[in-house]
């Protein structure tokens, strides 16, 4: 067939060949070529010489004798190294991924009124909500320490878990109650929780709580049950008639105020220390021949929980020392009276 673009006959395609392309045999490692091989190589149509066998390192071909069972081959080392790298990568990725810890069991948590992460601990406080009484029904309530003619009746919020398990007031080692009693002068020596029932005879001190049931912390109590404990507390005060009621914590006094005044206490109405005479607790009105009683004076102290960090330690000691000075003076006066 003639082409309109070319003069004469159409050129025929050339036969396919490997001319002008790379010859791979030229790049292979061969033994030094002999004269006959060089001659053959010079001819483009001569067949390419077969590659000579590769040399091997004589050290690798040296017999090593019997193979020990403990011998590790190169392939095995490579496999172990690869698996180690995979394990390290998996471990690093696991460490970088945040893990959600399971919740603690109720008995493993710290006592809210006796717990303290300590100055060296950075553990975050666990946030909890209301817990019904059935949650800790297996823990017994704390026994009240009451006696007539007490100098001070301490009123706590409620027993914490460790306090309930121990059966003694403020039993958690991080709680500052016993230390503050001693540093303020309320007790002449540092007492332990196991001595709580000896306090009336030793120092004229007693202890009770506005809520009797144990819980992990104060947030597991409702305002309703705290308010319900106010009338019960008033009856206890009337029964033993202490000179002073020490409220151990702001939230307890807020409940007492809410029940008495029908509203929450305002910020400018709250104060630590001695309260006005109109706030005395356990007042008995002399009706039908009954001897009246003006009630116990109220002193609002700081919470002794290690988790209570709204005030510095020096501020807490200053507030407690005010009560301690009064206690020391009253003991001297009682001693002189006989």
From TrEMBL:
Residue ranges of every copy of the Uracil-DNA glycosylase-like domain listed in the record: 146-323
CDD domains in alphabetical order: UDG-F2_TDG_MUG
Pfam family, one: UDG
InterPro entries, sorted: MUG/TDG, Uracil-DNA_glycosylase-like, Uracil-DNA_glycosylase-like_sf
Keyword DNA repair in record: yes
Region of interest (Disordered), ranges: 1-132
Gene Ontology terms for molecular function: pyrimidine-specific mismatch base pair DNA N-glycosylase activity; uracil DNA N-glycosylase activity
Gene3D superfamilies assigned to the protein according to its UniProt record, in alphabetical order: Uracil-DNA glycosylase-like domain (3.40.470.10)
Keywords of this entry: DNA damage, DNA repair, Hydrolase
GO annotation, biological process: base-excision repair, AP site formation
Compositional bias segments (type: Polar residues): 31-41, 80-99
Protein's UniProt name: G/U mismatch-specific uracil DNA glycosylase
């Amino acid at each position: 067939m003639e082409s309109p673009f070319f003069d004469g006959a159409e050129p025929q395609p050339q036969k396919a060949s490997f001319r002008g392309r790379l010859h791979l045999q030229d790049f292979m490692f061969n033994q030094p070529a002999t004269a006959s091989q060089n001659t053959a190589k010079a001819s483009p149509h001569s067949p390419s010489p077969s590659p000579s066998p590769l040399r091997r390192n004589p050290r690798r071909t040296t017999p090593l004798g019997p193979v020990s069972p403990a011998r590790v081959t190169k392939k095995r080392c490579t496999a172990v190294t690869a698996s180690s790298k995979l394990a390290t990568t998996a471990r690093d990725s696991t460490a970088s991924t945040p893990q959600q810890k399971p919740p603690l069991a109720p008995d493993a948590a710290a006592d809210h009124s006796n717990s303290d992460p300590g100055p060296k601990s950075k553990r975050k406080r666990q946030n909890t909500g209301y817990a019904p009484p059935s949650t800790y029904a297996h823990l017994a309530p704390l026994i009240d320490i009451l006696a007539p003619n007490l100098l001070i009746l301490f009123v706590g919020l409620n027993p914490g878990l460790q306090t309930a398990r121990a059966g003694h007031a403020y039993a958690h080692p991080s709680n500052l109650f016993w230390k503050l009693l001693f540093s303020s002068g309320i007790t002449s020596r540092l007492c332990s929780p196991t001595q709580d029932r000896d306090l009336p005879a030793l120092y004229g001190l007693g202890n009770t709580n506005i809520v009797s049931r144990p819980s992990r912390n104060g947030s597991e109590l409702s305002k309703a049950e705290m308010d319900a404990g106010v009338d019960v507390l008033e009856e206890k005060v009337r029964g033993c008639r202490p000179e002073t009621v020490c409220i151990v914590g702001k939230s307890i006094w807020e409940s007492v105020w809410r029940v008495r005044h029908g509203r929450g206490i305002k910020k400018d109405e709250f104060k630590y220390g001695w309260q006005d005479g109109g706030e005395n607790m356990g007042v008995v009105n002399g009706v039908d021949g009954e001897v009246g009683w003006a009630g116990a004076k109220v002193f609002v102290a700081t919470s002794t929980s290690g988790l209570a960090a709204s005030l510095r330690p020096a501020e807490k000691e200053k507030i407690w020392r005010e009560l301690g000075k009064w206690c020391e003076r009253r003991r001297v006066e009682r001693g002189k009276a006989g």
